[in-house]
Amino acid sequence: MKRLLPPLNALRAFEAAGRLGSFKEAAAELHVTHGAVSQHVRLLEEWLRAPLFERHNRRVVLTPAARLYLVQIGPLFEQLSQATARYGFPETVSRTLSVNAPATFTLRWLVPRLATLRAGHPDVDVNVETSNESVESLKDVYDIVIRGGPDTFYGYSMRPFLSEERVPVCSPALLQRLPLRIPDDLRQHTLLHTSSLPRLWPDWLASAKIPALRPAAALTFDHFYLTLQAAIDGIGIAMGPTALVSDDLAAGRLVTPFAGPRLPSRSYCTYVPDGKSADELVVLFRSWLEREGMNSRTQTIR
């Protein structure tokens, strides 16, 4: 039986434009002009005898039927790429995985653990970029995006891999200078804040039944990793996410002065474009993250 195949260059242009949601970005990925992508899409629409995009001034939106078509053909392009890499270019095809993650998470949790990935898979290269933009706002396409969750984004699969809570943390040296026996003793201390997370201390103080407490001083930083570093340096007391301070707690650089309360927090999740979910490097990296996340959860927090 003769195979019913559309023009493959036109199909490639449609897949890129649909996946990226933009003719301009598809043109950049395919190294062609915007006009070439538009022409290929029109050719495919003529071949299918059905529209693929609804055109609204300067933006295009997939039709419902085209959205389903994209979901079906997207993985096929990924499978074709993998098969070609294994068969035709085993020595030359790059095995670099592109990852986008928040800066504080990358600095305090991901980077210290990458050595274990390299030890087990020395042939896998990872390119990590940091950002706090939401998944749908990212301008580039990554193999894996790490963000809080769980959330749902069209065109992405989501899996949680690391849970955490938030608790006050400080250096042991600070407690030697000025002990903390009960939460009310925070009146004598400096509380460390992060401008992007203004509710952490008020919410914890409310949970501790001392919402009106006024500390001796307050210090605010624009990045969370600076706030945590200030706590390690003995400048004050920070609200520490247990996942991101677990190594410091284990090493004795930080301590938790109170048994509770602990504030609930969102989990860290991987978000992967649907067309990349079956990629062997994505599967490997996701599985590694989940194992490391399990190891972090089993660490004893003192």
TrEMBL record:
PANTHER family: HTH-TYPE TRANSCRIPTIONAL REGULATOR, HTH-TYPE TRANSCRIPTIONAL REGULATOR TRPI
Organism domain of life: Bacteria
Organism of provenance: Paraburkholderia aromaticivorans
Protein's name according to its UniProt entry: Transcriptional regulator
Keywords attached to this entry: DNA-binding, Transcription, Transcription regulation
GO molecular function: DNA-binding transcription factor activity; sequence-specific DNA binding
HTH lysR-type domain residues: 6-63
Source organism phylogeny: Bacteria, Pseudomonadati, Pseudomonadota, Betaproteobacteria, Burkholderiales
A GO biological process held by the record: DNA-templated transcription
